[in-house]
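Progress note, sequence design subtask.
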């Protein structure tokens, strides 16, 4: 029973600083789910604060914030970042040629989800479910490292990825990353609303504390993933926004580099901007009930881990 013992873990690696966290806990009467915040992919594009709004050097620090969720009987990953095959470069054609160059992607084994899962004392087989915000290469690369996991994604996203047309679509979606997946679970938005957002509840095999919140715009079938722990919600909003300043309820702002990147990668500009506005309202009206974060904001990742951002 791996989820009821005293546990030691260390697994925080950033672009320029290696930090070790040590946490002990006894989960005898604890919450039904426990959340670990992982960085599963680092990008350091030239431009510094023009991309992340905070770096003082030439290079920005852009993470890939994934979640490892301990439920009562299994592990759930929310997004996977890059995988071992990406790091080892053992398979041609997995990664696109353009974006890793532009983003100056740093591929390191210690950043992969599988490495961090093992560092926490678990095995790949303990990860029974992977819930994806979308299928972009920087979110789906680690799927192959968990061959027994069920993959949960919105129907529209799977369809868009399988029928990718145009340069951007063929660069972002890399079918070789999920070619061996046999257990897909795909969804339409049809559940009871969540804070006014459409939602997908009853994810098959998962507890009711985990649900999907469609947030299209960055991709056709993009969705956030909401998780309830200790009486509060946390929303992994994926790439629906990319910088904390975009949800600033007083003075919304965004570094110009990220603004340009979002515009290039967007499949529906109007829907993307509408969702940012709705997320800002969610923060304004329910900020004490819901913590919202973007996949690529390193400052938010550090805050949620109680550490100091690098850069
Ligand atoms: Zn991304």
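Output:
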């Amino acid at each position: 029973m791996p989820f009821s013992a005293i546990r030691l873990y260390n697994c925080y690696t950033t672009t320029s600083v290696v930090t070790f966290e040590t946490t002990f806990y006894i989960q005898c009467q604890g919450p039904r789910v426990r959340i670990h915040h992982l960085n599963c992919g680092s990008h350091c594009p030239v431009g510094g604060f023009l991309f992340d709004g905070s770096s003082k050097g030439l290079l920005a620090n852009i993470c890939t914030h994934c979640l490892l969720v301990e439920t009562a009987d299994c592990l759930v990953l929310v997004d996977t970042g890059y995988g071992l095959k990406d790091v080892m470069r053992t398979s041609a054609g997995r990664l696109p040629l353009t974006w890793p160059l532009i983003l100056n992607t740093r591929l390191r084994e210690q950043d992969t989800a599988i490495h961090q899962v093992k560092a926490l004392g678990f095995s790949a087989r303990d990860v029974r479910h992977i819930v994806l915000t979308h299928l972009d290469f920087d979110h789906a690369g680690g799927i192959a490292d968990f061959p027994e996991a069920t993959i949960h994604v919105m129907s529209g996203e799977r369809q868009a990825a399988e029928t990718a047309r145009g340069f951007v679509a063929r660069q972002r979606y890399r079918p070789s990353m999920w070619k061996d997946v046999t257990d897909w679970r795909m969804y339409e938005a049809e559940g009871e609303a969540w804070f006014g957002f459409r939602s997908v509840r009853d994810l098959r095999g998962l507890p009711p504390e985990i649900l999907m919140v469609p947030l299209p715009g960055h991709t056709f079938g993009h969705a956030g993933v909401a998780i309830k722990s200790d009486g509060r919600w946390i929303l992994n909003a994926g790439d629906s926004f990319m910088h904390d300043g975009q949800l600033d309820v007083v003075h919304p702002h965004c570094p110009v580099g990220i603004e340009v990147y979002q515009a290039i990668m967007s499949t529906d500009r109007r829907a993307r901007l509408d969702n940012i506005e709705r997320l800002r309202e969610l923060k304004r009206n329910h900020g004490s009930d819901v913590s919202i974060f973007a996949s690529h904001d390193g400052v938010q990742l550090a805050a949620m881990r109680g550490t100091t951002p690098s850069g």
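The chain has a mean pLDDT of 89. Work on this subtask will continue into the next period as scheduled.
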